[in-house]
Structures
1.
Amino acid sequence: MFEELALLGGEPVTRKEFPPYNTIDEREKAEVLEVLDSGVLSAFLAAPGPAFRGGPKVRKLEQAWAEHFGVKHAVSMNSATSALCAAVAACGIGPGDEVITSPLTMTATATAVLANGAVPVFADVDPRTLNLDPASVGRCITERTKAIYVVHLAGHPADMDPVMELASTHDLFVLEDNAQAPGAQYKGRYTGCIGHIGVFSLNCHKTIQAGEGGVAVTNDDRLADRLCLVRNHGETRLESLGLSADEYLIGFNFRMTEMEAAVAYHQLGKLEQLNAWRIRLADYLTRRITEEFDCLSPPHVAPDCTHVYYLYHMRYDEAKAGIPLDLFAEAVRAEGIPLSARWMPPLYRMSIYRQRSAFGDSGWPFRPPWYHGEVSYTEGICPHAEAAEHSSAYLETLVRRPNTEEDMELAVRAMRKVLDGRAALSESHAVQAGCVKT
Ligand SMILES: Cc1ncc(COP(=O)(O)O)c(C=O)c1O
């Protein structure tokens, strides 16, 4: 006798309200109050002198960030999106240039390329990690390629060694979008700190946060200076900063406030602990999923890599499960567990790529006068990325503090219950869809 599924009117596995993720404590509060008491909420000046690089809290954060990750320079910004744009600009990449990136990422990785007038070229992913497949990257390189924008998706490192090798053979920059993987390691090195510039996010959804914010890191002095120029209206003061006109860059206001920096400083101090919490729960869930289900594969962790589980991403085998992915996820959610289905579709399905609307308003087929390449955004260019849309199930808000192993067990019970009740679920679904006469 199977328990009736919550989606069919039964009692859910849990009615628990999972608590919000709140990692702010007295330390952040005290330091923000200190900033407010000082009245100096930002101390940036787009003029020569120390204030070109921000106020005391911004500089304290940057120093701590660089020390923590073992890099020479950390440049804070008002978001990772800003830092991603600034990284492309700092490398001197612009109109006519191509940047190879992943189609399975948050939109900002690729729009950072578009915002600089350059052209994103999408390479396929490794189906195990959904990170860029270096072999596919290699096939996308042309004479116009200037950089590879690697993404460390969901908290797992991309395969950096072959990417760095391609970059050195073809003289390319390697930029890392590390928004989702702060503290992850690839062969003993922090992700975000392996290529020329790496970008971290401090938005409110991330493992550590300042509400909004981003940090770009680099070991290259010149790139660090150029990041600072893009961040702070650099074009206004080029000569007075001791830089030649060759360094000309359009600058923006990408500056972080003193309050955000004060929060981010203390959040950074908690990063390893917060990651350890996620890893502990994820390891538990991985063991239980492996024991219980043959239709679900836990996240792949490559040898010599640490996964920091921004998301707990599983592969779902619809044929083995016997229930469509969307219905499975809906039924698990009805049991009280926040399971999401389907990874986002590949970015190139968006109209800014499909119709080339980001390149001008001339419609399809359109090629801006400064671009002489043949980039394709048609269906089928990245088969693994396209397939992932239909096989991915992920837990976004469960595998983190303050949840516990008991909560992971609730997730296992919910998935078990839905799979045990699959016959009733399929029948009811078929009736609802009008496939079965009642
Ligand atoms: C992979 C990735 N890149 C970039 C971003 C943009 O970060 P921000 O919101 O700090 O601009 C995000 C945010 O969700 C992300 O997940």
Note: The pocket of pyridoxal-5'-phosphate is lined by residues 79-81, 105-106, 108-109, 151, 177, 179-180, 201, 203, 214 (CB under 6 Å).
2.
Amino acid sequence: MKHHSQQAASRFDDWADSYSEGRISSWFRFYQSMAMSQLKIAEGCGFLDVGCGTGWAVRQAAKQLQVGKACGIDISAKMIENAVAETSEAHNIEFQIGDAEAIPYPDESFSSIICTFSIHHYQNPVSALSEMKRVLKPDGSIVILDSARDVSFAIWLQDRGRRYFEKSHVKYYTTKEMTDLIAKAQLQLIGDITTINKFMDHNKVFTGLMLLSCTK
Ligand SMILES: C[S@@+](CC[C@H](N)C(=O)[O-])C[C@H]1O[C@@H](n2cnc3c(N)ncnc32)[C@H](O)[C@@H]1O
């Protein structure tokens, strides 16, 4: 495992036991649901959550999927261990330890891919987006959701602090930077980027997010 990925794995191993029931777990779930609603999961074949944490979105997708598996990969072994423990026998769910920059699935495996609150940890986000593109079926879609530096000044400030104090944090992107990353990975943006700027939302003081869909 690369040094930076090891740092992310270690930080999230430490968070894994309190992740699903933590103070802002409802915030994560609310916005993951919003990201998933951009996808036609039930009509497609296969779903992948990149940086799946304890796997809540994977379990939701598995209920909708008619064909293929709902899969989750995460760099943190402890997140994956807990994702498996929180999943009661669903025949169409699979979790694996894996790096977003080397997704452990063959080409064109999934119609629907999400990556929520995770891309700001990747050392090379273009490699990760290119990997998502590789495992995406030709008519499939990818939804990215993350904090955005230009949506809220509080998020801009948090980014400065986290770059300094939090080893796994690479950066919160601006909407323009994210558009450029999508273009570099040779993905096509579908529609406009949605931005969300809120104060005191689901136990989180500042919310400053971007949500976007793209395809091959
Ligand atoms: C804040 S959590 C988000 C989890 C989940 N997507 C959600 O929305 O609740 C970020 C997750 O990204 C994972 N992660 C960080 N770097 C990664 C990488 N290079 N490859 C795969 N997962 C990674 C972390 O281990 C962590 O579980």
Note: The two ends are 28 Å apart (CA to CA).
